[in-house]
Here is the input.
Amino acid sequence: MMDQVCNEIKRVLLAGVGLADKGIQKVGQGVNSLSQHGEEVWQKLTAKQKCASCPQDEIDELLSSLSPEQLDALRSALNAQPPEAPEQPQNDENS
Here is the structure.
């Protein structure tokens, strides 16, 4: 009888260790996924900032240096992208 109780306690403890290990694995996967997504968002934001800070004369110069085929490819790429959602106004708590 005592051996049965000890075996059951051992099984419960081992199940707890297994559960903790699975939880750590899942949390690690979630952190990795969120980290990767954050990196992608950061790259998009920094790319938009670089584009927004580029002077118009540099853009004009670059566009004028493109061949007709390159211009067509650029137009196709721009037309293929879905329009961005308008920015939502931020709520001021003091208002």
